[in-house]
Protein backbone atom coordinates (compact mmCIF):
# COMPACT_ATOMS: atom_id res chain seq x y z
CA UNK A 1 0.00 0.00 0.00
CA UNK A 2 1.39 3.42 -0.90
CA UNK A 3 -1.35 5.32 0.90
CA UNK A 4 -3.49 4.51 3.90
CA UNK A 5 -6.24 6.44 5.68
CA UNK A 6 -6.93 6.08 9.38
CA UNK A 7 -10.51 6.45 10.65
CA UNK A 8 -11.79 6.42 14.22
CA UNK A 9 -14.76 4.01 14.31
CA UNK A 10 -16.40 5.31 17.51
CA UNK A 11 -16.74 8.74 19.14
CA UNK A 12 -13.05 9.66 18.96
CA UNK A 13 -10.08 8.89 21.22
CA UNK A 14 -9.72 5.38 19.83
CA UNK A 15 -5.93 5.61 19.66
CA UNK A 16 -5.52 7.14 16.20
CA UNK A 17 -2.43 9.10 17.29
CA UNK A 18 -0.60 5.94 18.35
CA UNK A 19 -1.40 4.14 15.07
CA UNK A 20 -0.49 7.17 12.94
CA UNK A 21 2.85 7.47 14.75
CA UNK A 22 3.41 3.74 14.18
CA UNK A 23 2.67 4.05 10.45
CA UNK A 24 4.71 7.26 10.25
CA UNK A 25 7.91 5.32 10.84
CA UNK A 26 7.51 4.03 7.28
CA UNK A 27 5.65 6.99 5.74
CA UNK A 28 7.12 9.88 3.78
CA UNK A 29 4.13 12.14 4.42
CA UNK A 30 1.49 12.31 7.18
CA UNK A 31 -1.65 14.38 6.55
CA UNK A 32 -4.33 15.80 8.85
CA UNK A 33 -7.29 16.80 6.70
CA UNK A 34 -10.10 18.10 8.93
CA UNK A 35 -10.97 19.27 12.43
CA UNK A 36 -8.69 21.41 14.53
CA UNK A 37 -7.44 21.47 18.09
CA UNK A 38 -10.60 19.74 19.27
CA UNK A 39 -8.46 16.66 18.51
CA UNK A 40 -6.12 15.36 21.18
CA UNK A 41 -3.79 12.61 20.03
CA UNK A 42 -1.46 11.08 22.61
CA UNK A 43 1.71 9.31 21.63
CA UNK A 44 4.17 7.57 23.93
CA UNK A 45 7.77 6.77 23.15
CA UNK A 46 9.63 4.95 25.91
CA UNK A 47 7.53 6.52 28.66
CA UNK A 48 7.61 10.06 27.25
CA UNK A 49 4.13 11.32 26.40
CA UNK A 50 3.36 13.83 23.65
CA UNK A 51 -0.08 15.37 23.23
CA UNK A 52 -0.80 16.59 19.70
CA UNK A 53 -3.77 18.68 18.71
CA UNK A 54 -3.10 20.42 15.41
CA UNK A 55 0.22 18.93 14.39
CA UNK A 56 -0.03 15.60 12.56
CA UNK A 57 1.19 12.57 14.51
CA UNK A 58 4.11 12.03 12.14
CA UNK A 59 5.94 14.91 13.83
CA UNK A 60 8.11 12.66 16.01
CA UNK A 61 9.50 10.84 12.97
CA UNK A 62 12.47 12.58 11.37
CA UNK A 63 12.25 13.14 7.63
CA UNK A 64 8.45 12.87 7.46
CA UNK A 65 6.60 15.82 5.91
CA UNK A 66 3.56 16.69 8.06
CA UNK A 67 0.72 18.36 6.18
CA UNK A 68 -2.14 20.37 7.70
CA UNK A 69 -4.49 20.16 4.75
CA UNK A 70 -7.34 22.19 3.25
CA UNK A 71 -10.28 20.95 5.34
CA UNK A 72 -8.75 21.84 8.70
CA UNK A 73 -9.68 24.73 10.98
CA UNK A 74 -6.40 26.08 12.32
CA UNK A 75 -5.98 28.36 15.31
CA UNK A 76 -2.58 29.91 14.45
CA UNK A 77 -1.98 30.99 18.05
CA UNK A 78 -2.67 27.48 19.36
CA UNK A 79 -0.48 25.98 16.63
CA UNK A 80 2.46 28.16 17.61
CA UNK A 81 1.92 27.26 21.29
CA UNK A 82 1.90 23.57 20.37
CA UNK A 83 5.13 23.91 18.42
CA UNK A 84 6.76 25.70 21.39
CA UNK A 85 5.49 23.02 23.80
CA UNK A 86 6.95 20.24 21.65
CA UNK A 87 10.23 22.13 21.30
CA UNK A 88 10.28 22.18 25.10
CA UNK A 89 9.95 18.38 25.01
CA UNK A 90 12.98 18.12 22.74
CA UNK A 91 11.32 17.87 19.30
CA UNK A 92 13.68 19.62 16.88
CA UNK A 93 12.30 19.09 13.40
CA UNK A 94 9.09 20.83 12.29
CA UNK A 95 8.87 19.62 8.75
CA UNK A 96 5.36 20.97 8.18
CA UNK A 97 3.27 22.34 5.34
CA UNK A 98 0.11 24.31 6.10
CA UNK A 99 -2.64 24.64 3.51
CA UNK A 100 -3.38 28.16 2.32
CA UNK A 101 -7.00 26.99 1.94
CA UNK A 102 -7.40 25.83 5.55
CA UNK A 103 -9.73 27.97 7.67
CA UNK A 104 -8.33 30.33 10.30
CA UNK A 105 -9.80 29.87 13.76
CA UNK A 106 -9.70 33.14 15.70
CA UNK A 107 -10.32 34.23 19.30
CA UNK A 108 -13.91 35.29 18.53
CA UNK A 109 -14.78 31.74 17.41
CA UNK A 110 -13.77 30.51 20.86
CA UNK A 111 -15.89 33.17 22.52
CA UNK A 112 -18.86 32.29 20.28
CA UNK A 113 -18.47 28.60 21.16
CA UNK A 114 -18.54 29.53 24.84
CA UNK A 115 -21.57 31.83 24.77
CA UNK A 116 -23.60 29.47 22.56
CA UNK A 117 -22.97 26.45 24.76
CA UNK A 118 -23.93 28.55 27.79
CA UNK A 119 -27.11 29.72 26.03
CA UNK A 120 -28.06 26.13 25.17
CA UNK A 121 -27.98 25.21 28.86
CA UNK A 122 -29.15 21.62 29.27
CA UNK A 123 -29.31 21.18 25.49
CA UNK A 124 -25.58 21.94 25.10
CA UNK A 125 -23.45 19.76 22.79
CA UNK A 126 -20.57 19.52 25.26
CA UNK A 127 -18.04 20.86 22.74
CA UNK A 128 -14.33 21.07 23.42
CA UNK A 129 -14.73 24.86 23.62
CA UNK A 130 -12.08 25.43 20.95
CA UNK A 131 -14.33 27.40 18.57
CA UNK A 132 -14.61 24.61 16.00
CA UNK A 133 -18.34 24.94 15.17
CA UNK A 134 -18.31 28.75 14.79
CA UNK A 135 -15.23 28.55 12.54
CA UNK A 136 -16.77 25.95 10.21
CA UNK A 137 -19.97 28.04 10.18
CA UNK A 138 -17.99 31.01 8.92
CA UNK A 139 -16.45 28.84 6.23
CA UNK A 140 -19.92 27.72 5.07
CA UNK A 141 -21.39 31.21 5.27
CA UNK A 142 -18.36 32.57 3.39
CA UNK A 143 -17.32 35.11 5.97
CA UNK A 144 -14.38 33.03 7.16
CA UNK A 145 -10.66 33.64 6.69
CA UNK A 146 -8.19 31.22 5.15
CA UNK A 147 -4.58 30.62 6.11
CA UNK A 148 -3.41 32.18 2.84
CA UNK A 149 -5.10 35.44 3.91
CA UNK A 150 -2.58 35.73 6.77
CA UNK A 151 0.11 36.44 4.15
CA UNK A 152 -1.68 39.52 2.73
CA UNK A 153 -1.95 42.16 5.44
CA UNK A 154 -4.29 44.56 3.63
CA UNK A 155 -6.67 41.81 2.55
CA UNK A 156 -6.52 40.23 6.00
CA UNK A 157 -7.65 43.49 7.60
CA UNK A 158 -10.48 43.85 5.07
CA UNK A 159 -11.66 40.29 5.74
CA UNK A 160 -11.51 40.80 9.49
CA UNK A 161 -13.48 44.03 9.23
CA UNK A 162 -16.30 42.37 7.29
CA UNK A 163 -16.29 39.27 9.44
CA UNK A 164 -16.27 41.13 12.76
CA UNK A 165 -19.12 43.38 11.58
CA UNK A 166 -21.31 40.27 11.72
CA UNK A 167 -19.67 38.39 14.58
CA UNK A 168 -19.68 41.29 17.03
CA UNK A 169 -23.43 41.67 16.63
CA UNK A 170 -23.89 38.05 17.47
CA UNK A 171 -21.51 38.29 20.43
CA UNK A 172 -23.32 41.39 21.70
CA UNK A 173 -26.66 39.56 21.52
CA UNK A 174 -25.26 36.81 23.73
CA UNK A 175 -23.56 39.26 26.10
CA UNK A 176 -20.15 37.94 25.04
CA UNK A 177 -16.86 39.80 24.60
CA UNK A 178 -16.58 41.78 21.35
CA UNK A 179 -13.36 42.17 19.35
CA UNK A 180 -11.65 44.94 17.41
CA UNK A 181 -9.64 44.30 14.26
CA UNK A 182 -6.55 45.67 15.98
CA UNK A 183 -6.98 43.32 18.91
CA UNK A 184 -7.16 40.31 16.61
CA UNK A 185 -4.22 41.55 14.52
CA UNK A 186 -2.13 41.98 17.68
CA UNK A 187 -3.05 38.51 18.94
CA UNK A 188 -2.04 37.03 15.58
CA UNK A 189 1.23 38.93 15.08
CA UNK A 190 3.76 36.41 16.38
CA UNK A 191 1.98 33.38 14.92
CA UNK A 192 1.67 35.01 11.49
CA UNK A 193 5.37 35.77 11.38
CA UNK A 194 6.36 32.31 12.56
CA UNK A 195 3.95 30.30 10.39
CA UNK A 196 4.22 32.31 7.12
CA UNK A 197 7.05 30.23 5.58
CA UNK A 198 5.05 27.02 6.05
CA UNK A 199 1.84 28.22 4.34
CA UNK A 200 1.51 26.93 0.79
CA UNK A 201 -0.76 25.10 -1.65
CA UNK A 202 -0.66 21.67 -0.04
CA UNK A 203 -3.09 20.22 -2.57
CA UNK A 204 -0.55 20.70 -5.38
CA UNK A 205 2.14 19.16 -3.16
CA UNK A 206 -0.07 16.17 -2.33
CA UNK A 207 -1.21 15.56 -5.91
CA UNK A 208 2.43 15.46 -7.02
CA UNK A 209 3.31 13.20 -4.09
CA UNK A 210 0.56 10.74 -5.04
CA UNK A 211 1.69 10.84 -8.68
CA UNK A 212 5.25 10.05 -7.55
CA UNK A 213 4.02 7.04 -5.54
CA UNK A 214 5.07 8.50 -2.14
CA UNK A 215 4.05 6.63 0.99
CA UNK A 216 1.33 8.72 2.65
CA UNK A 217 -0.64 8.19 5.86
CA UNK A 218 -3.85 10.21 6.25
CA UNK A 219 -4.41 10.63 9.97
CA UNK A 220 -8.02 10.73 11.08
CA UNK A 221 -9.27 13.05 13.81
CA UNK A 222 -12.48 12.59 15.84
CA UNK A 223 -14.54 9.47 15.12
CA UNK A 224 -17.13 8.43 12.56
CA UNK A 225 -20.03 8.88 14.99
CA UNK A 226 -19.04 12.52 15.39
CA UNK A 227 -19.51 13.07 11.64
CA UNK A 228 -21.77 16.07 11.01
CA UNK A 229 -23.84 14.08 8.49
CA UNK A 230 -23.62 10.41 9.52
CA UNK A 231 -22.97 10.79 13.26
CA UNK A 232 -25.31 11.17 16.21
CA UNK A 233 -26.49 14.63 15.13
CA UNK A 234 -26.70 17.18 16.77
CA UNK A 235 -24.19 15.69 19.23
CA UNK A 236 -21.38 15.72 16.69
CA UNK A 237 -18.52 17.91 15.56
CA UNK A 238 -18.84 20.33 12.63
CA UNK A 239 -16.91 18.40 9.98
CA UNK A 240 -16.71 14.86 8.64
CA UNK A 241 -14.10 12.56 10.20
CA UNK A 242 -14.92 9.86 7.63
CA UNK A 243 -12.07 8.69 5.43
CA UNK A 244 -14.37 9.18 2.47
CA UNK A 245 -14.19 12.95 3.12
CA UNK A 246 -10.40 13.00 2.70
CA UNK A 247 -10.37 13.66 -1.06
CA UNK A 248 -12.39 16.87 -0.70
CA UNK A 249 -10.40 17.95 2.34
CA UNK A 250 -7.03 17.51 0.63
CA UNK A 251 -7.67 18.18 -3.06
CA UNK A 252 -6.93 14.60 -4.06
CA UNK A 253 -8.87 12.25 -6.34
CA UNK A 254 -10.85 9.33 -4.86
CA UNK A 255 -8.28 6.90 -6.23
CA UNK A 256 -5.54 8.44 -4.03
CA UNK A 257 -6.46 6.30 -1.02
CA UNK A 258 -5.45 2.66 -1.28
CA UNK A 259 -6.95 1.42 1.98
CA UNK A 260 -8.83 2.63 5.06
CA UNK A 261 -7.82 1.26 8.44
CA UNK A 262 -10.47 1.52 11.16
CA UNK A 263 -9.33 2.26 14.69
CA UNK A 264 -11.48 0.57 17.32
CA UNK A 265 -11.15 0.67 21.08
CA UNK A 266 -11.78 -2.68 22.81
CA UNK A 267 -14.74 -0.95 24.52
CA UNK A 268 -16.56 2.33 23.81
CA UNK A 269 -16.03 5.85 25.12
CA UNK A 270 -17.59 9.21 24.47
CA UNK A 271 -16.95 12.76 25.72
CA UNK A 272 -19.63 15.41 25.55
CA UNK A 273 -23.37 14.95 25.43
CA UNK A 274 -25.53 12.63 23.34
CA UNK A 275 -27.00 9.11 23.41
CA UNK A 276 -24.71 6.19 24.19
CA UNK A 277 -26.65 2.89 24.11
CA UNK A 278 -24.01 0.69 25.79
CA UNK A 279 -22.98 3.22 28.45
CA UNK A 280 -21.93 1.84 31.83
CA UNK A 281 -21.93 3.39 35.24
CA UNK A 282 -20.90 2.26 38.68
CA UNK A 283 -17.88 0.12 39.54
CA UNK A 284 -17.25 -1.40 36.11
CA UNK A 285 -17.23 2.01 34.42
CA UNK A 286 -14.88 3.34 37.08
CA UNK A 287 -12.51 0.38 36.78
CA UNK A 288 -12.27 0.74 32.98
CA UNK A 289 -11.95 4.54 33.18
CA UNK A 290 -9.15 4.33 35.73
CA UNK A 291 -7.20 1.57 33.99
CA UNK A 292 -7.60 3.20 30.55
CA UNK A 293 -6.88 6.73 31.89
CA UNK A 294 -10.09 7.76 30.18
CA UNK A 295 -9.85 11.51 30.71
CA UNK A 296 -9.87 13.87 27.72
CA UNK A 297 -6.49 14.93 26.29
CA UNK A 298 -7.94 18.35 25.39
CA UNK A 299 -10.48 19.14 28.10
CA UNK A 300 -9.48 16.63 30.85
CA UNK A 301 -13.18 15.68 31.15
CA UNK A 302 -13.80 12.11 32.37
CA UNK A 303 -14.83 10.07 29.34
CA UNK A 304 -18.10 8.17 29.44
CA UNK A 305 -17.42 4.43 29.16
CA UNK A 306 -19.46 1.53 27.71
CA UNK A 307 -19.25 -1.91 26.09
CA UNK A 308 -18.35 -2.52 22.48
CA UNK A 309 -21.30 -1.85 20.22
CA UNK A 310 -21.53 -4.07 17.12
CA UNK A 311 -24.49 -2.34 15.39
CA UNK A 312 -22.54 0.90 15.63
CA UNK A 313 -19.30 -0.65 14.32
CA UNK A 314 -21.06 -2.39 11.42
CA UNK A 315 -22.78 0.89 10.54
CA UNK A 316 -19.45 2.71 10.43
CA UNK A 317 -17.63 -0.09 8.56
CA UNK A 318 -20.47 -0.04 6.03
CA UNK A 319 -20.33 3.72 5.44
CA UNK A 320 -16.60 3.82 4.78
CA UNK A 321 -16.00 0.25 3.59
CA UNK A 322 -13.61 -0.61 6.41
CA UNK A 323 -12.18 -4.14 6.29
CA UNK A 324 -8.96 -3.77 8.26
CA UNK A 325 -8.99 -2.78 11.91
CA UNK A 326 -6.57 -1.92 14.73
CA UNK A 327 -7.99 -3.04 18.08
CA UNK A 328 -6.75 -0.65 20.77
CA UNK A 329 -6.51 -0.60 24.59
CA UNK A 330 -7.18 -4.34 24.84
CA UNK A 331 -4.99 -4.50 27.97
CA UNK A 332 -7.56 -2.39 29.84
CA UNK A 333 -10.22 -5.12 29.91
CA UNK A 334 -8.34 -7.37 32.34
CA UNK A 335 -9.94 -5.30 35.14
CA UNK A 336 -13.35 -6.93 34.60
CA UNK A 337 -14.43 -10.58 35.06
CA UNK A 338 -16.87 -10.64 32.24
CA UNK A 339 -16.90 -8.61 29.03
CA UNK A 340 -20.16 -7.79 27.31
CA UNK A 341 -20.66 -7.12 23.62
CA UNK A 342 -23.80 -5.51 22.24
CA UNK A 343 -24.76 -7.61 19.19
CA UNK A 344 -27.96 -5.88 18.10
CA UNK A 345 -30.53 -3.31 19.12
CA UNK A 346 -34.25 -3.72 19.69
CA UNK A 347 -36.53 -0.81 19.03
CA UNK A 348 -40.32 -1.03 19.31
CA UNK A 349 -39.98 -4.82 19.34
CA UNK A 350 -38.03 -4.81 16.06
CA UNK A 351 -34.39 -5.97 15.80
CA UNK A 352 -31.98 -3.65 13.99
CA UNK A 353 -28.23 -3.84 13.50
CA UNK A 354 -27.44 -0.25 12.56
CA UNK A 355 -27.60 3.21 14.14
CA UNK A 356 -30.98 4.88 13.68
CA UNK A 357 -30.84 8.35 12.15
CA UNK A 358 -32.37 10.30 15.03
CA UNK A 359 -31.07 10.70 18.55
CA UNK A 360 -34.62 10.17 19.86
CA UNK A 361 -34.64 6.66 18.39
CA UNK A 362 -31.06 6.00 19.42
CA UNK A 363 -31.93 6.95 22.99
CA UNK A 364 -34.76 4.37 22.90
CA UNK A 365 -32.87 1.35 21.55
CA UNK A 366 -32.41 -1.59 23.90
CA UNK A 367 -29.07 -3.29 23.38
CA UNK A 368 -28.89 -7.11 23.33
CA UNK A 369 -25.69 -8.41 24.89
CA UNK A 370 -23.60 -11.55 24.86
CA UNK A 371 -20.92 -12.15 27.51
CA UNK A 372 -17.42 -13.51 27.17
CA UNK A 373 -14.95 -14.14 30.00
CA UNK A 374 -12.03 -11.77 30.51
CA UNK A 375 -8.44 -13.02 30.80
CA UNK A 376 -7.69 -11.41 34.18
CA UNK A 377 -3.95 -11.13 33.55
CA UNK A 378 -1.60 -8.38 32.43
CA UNK A 379 -1.06 -8.59 28.66
CA UNK A 380 0.80 -5.30 28.28
CA UNK A 381 4.20 -6.97 27.85
CA UNK A 382 3.05 -9.49 25.23
CA UNK A 383 4.52 -8.95 21.77
CA UNK A 384 3.10 -11.84 19.72
CA UNK A 385 -0.47 -12.80 18.96
CA UNK A 386 0.12 -16.46 19.78
CA UNK A 387 1.28 -15.57 23.29
CA UNK A 388 -2.03 -13.82 24.15
CA UNK A 389 -4.30 -15.66 26.63
CA UNK A 390 -6.93 -17.89 24.98
CA UNK A 391 -9.83 -15.74 26.30
CA UNK A 392 -8.21 -12.71 24.74
CA UNK A 393 -7.89 -14.41 21.35
CA UNK A 394 -11.51 -15.57 21.66
CA UNK A 395 -12.65 -11.95 22.25
CA UNK A 396 -10.71 -10.80 19.16
CA UNK A 397 -12.21 -13.62 17.04
CA UNK A 398 -15.71 -12.76 18.26
CA UNK A 399 -15.32 -9.09 17.29
CA UNK A 400 -14.09 -10.11 13.84
CA UNK A 401 -17.01 -12.50 13.39
CA UNK A 402 -19.64 -10.02 14.57
CA UNK A 403 -18.34 -6.96 12.69
CA UNK A 404 -17.12 -8.71 9.53
CA UNK A 405 -13.73 -7.02 9.78
CA UNK A 406 -10.18 -8.33 10.13
CA UNK A 407 -8.20 -7.22 13.18
CA UNK A 408 -4.70 -6.67 11.81
CA UNK A 409 -3.13 -4.87 14.78
CA UNK A 410 -3.70 -5.34 18.50
CA UNK A 411 -2.52 -2.64 20.89
CA UNK A 412 -1.78 -3.65 24.48
CA UNK A 413 -0.35 -0.42 25.91
CA UNK A 414 0.15 3.26 25.09
CA UNK A 415 3.80 2.86 24.08
CA UNK A 416 4.79 2.37 20.46
CA UNK A 417 6.39 -0.96 21.39
CA UNK A 418 3.18 -2.34 22.95
CA UNK A 419 1.86 -3.29 19.53
CA UNK A 420 1.13 -6.72 18.06
CA UNK A 421 1.00 -6.94 14.29
CA UNK A 422 -1.01 -9.79 12.77
CA UNK A 423 -0.95 -8.45 9.23
CA UNK A 424 0.99 -5.52 7.79
CA UNK A 425 -1.38 -2.84 6.52
CA UNK A 426 1.03 -0.19 5.23
P1 LIG B 1 -6.88 9.55 19.63
O1 LIG B 1 -7.58 10.83 19.83
O2 LIG B 1 -7.67 8.59 18.82
O3 LIG B 1 -5.48 9.71 19.11
O4 LIG B 1 -6.76 8.88 21.07
P2 LIG B 1 -6.31 9.64 22.43
O5 LIG B 1 -4.85 9.84 22.38
O6 LIG B 1 -7.17 10.80 22.69
O7 LIG B 1 -6.74 8.55 23.51
C1 LIG B 1 -6.20 7.27 23.51
C2 LIG B 1 -5.47 7.08 24.84
O8 LIG B 1 -5.16 5.72 25.01
C3 LIG B 1 -4.15 7.80 24.91
O9 LIG B 1 -3.94 8.21 26.23
C4 LIG B 1 -3.13 6.75 24.51
O10 LIG B 1 -1.84 6.97 25.06
C5 LIG B 1 -3.75 5.54 25.11
N1 LIG B 1 -3.52 4.27 24.41
C6 LIG B 1 -3.42 4.03 23.07
N2 LIG B 1 -3.33 2.70 22.84
C7 LIG B 1 -3.37 2.11 24.05
C8 LIG B 1 -3.38 0.74 24.48
O11 LIG B 1 -3.33 -0.20 23.70
N3 LIG B 1 -3.48 0.52 25.83
C9 LIG B 1 -3.56 1.52 26.73
N4 LIG B 1 -3.63 1.19 28.01
N5 LIG B 1 -3.56 2.82 26.38
C10 LIG B 1 -3.50 3.10 25.05
P1 LIG C 1 -9.88 13.03 18.72
O1 LIG C 1 -9.24 13.37 17.39
C1 LIG C 1 -13.40 12.89 21.26
C2 LIG C 1 -16.51 15.90 20.58
C3 LIG C 1 -16.70 16.85 21.74
C4 LIG C 1 -18.19 17.12 21.59
C5 LIG C 1 -18.38 17.16 20.08
C6 LIG C 1 -18.36 18.56 19.48
O2 LIG C 1 -8.99 13.23 19.88
O3 LIG C 1 -10.51 11.67 18.66
P2 LIG C 1 -16.38 20.28 19.01
O4 LIG C 1 -15.43 20.95 19.95
O5 LIG C 1 -15.72 19.49 17.93
O6 LIG C 1 -17.41 21.22 18.46
O7 LIG C 1 -17.21 19.26 19.95
O8 LIG C 1 -17.32 16.40 19.53
N1 LIG C 1 -15.11 15.79 20.06
C7 LIG C 1 -14.28 14.79 20.35
N2 LIG C 1 -14.43 13.75 21.19
N3 LIG C 1 -12.26 13.02 20.54
C8 LIG C 1 -12.11 14.04 19.68
O9 LIG C 1 -11.03 14.14 18.87
C9 LIG C 1 -13.12 15.01 19.59
N4 LIG C 1 -13.28 16.15 18.87
C10 LIG C 1 -14.51 16.61 19.17
O10 LIG C 1 -16.39 16.26 22.96
O11 LIG C 1 -18.92 16.04 22.08
MG1 LIG D 1 -8.19 12.08 21.39
What does it look like?
The protein has helices spanning 16-24, 76-88, 107-120, 132-140, 153-173, 181-195, 202-211, 246-250, 282-291, 310-320, 359-364, 390-403; strands spanning 3-8, 29-35, 41-45, 48-52, 65-74, 96-99, 103-104, 199-200, 216-219, 259-265, 268-270, 304-306, 308-309, 324-328, 338-347, 350-352, 366-373, 406-411, 419-421. With 426 residues, the chain is an alpha/beta fold. A hairpin with a 2-residue loop joins strand 3 and strand 4. The model has no long low-confidence stretch (mean pLDDT 97). Bound molecules: guanosine-5'-diphosphate, 6-O-phosphoryl inosine monophosphate and magnesium ion. Magnesium ion is lined by residues 12-13, 40-41, 297. Residues 8, 11-13, 38-41, 125-128, 130, 132-133, 221-223, 226, 237-238, 271-272 line the site of 6-O-phosphoryl inosine monophosphate.
Q: Give the % helix.
A: 25-40%
* Biggest pleated sheet: 11 strands, mixed
Q: Count all strands and give the number.
A: 19
In what range is the share of β-strand residues? 15-25%
Query: What characteristic shape results from the CA principal axes?
Result: globular
Please report the distance between the alpha carbons of the first and last residues: 5 Å
Number of helices: 12
- Structural class assignment: alpha/beta
Averaging pLDDT over every residue, what do you get? 97
Weakly predicted, low-confidence segments: none
**What ligands can be seen in this structure?**
guanosine-5'-diphosphate, 6-O-phosphoryl inosine monophosphate, magnesium ion
Q: What is the rounded Rg?
A: 21 Å
Amino acid sequence: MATVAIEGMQWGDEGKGKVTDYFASRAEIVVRSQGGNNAGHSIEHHGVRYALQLLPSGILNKGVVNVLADGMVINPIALLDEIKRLKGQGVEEFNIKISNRASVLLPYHIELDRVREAALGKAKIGTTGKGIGPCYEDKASRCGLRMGDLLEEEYLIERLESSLAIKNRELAAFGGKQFTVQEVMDALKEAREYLAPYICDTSVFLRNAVKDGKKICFEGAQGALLCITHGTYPYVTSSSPLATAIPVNTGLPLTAIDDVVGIMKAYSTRVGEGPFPTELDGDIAKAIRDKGHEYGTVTKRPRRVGWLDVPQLKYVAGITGIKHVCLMLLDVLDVVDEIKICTEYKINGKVIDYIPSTVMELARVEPTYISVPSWKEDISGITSYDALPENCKAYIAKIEELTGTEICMVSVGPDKDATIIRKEMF
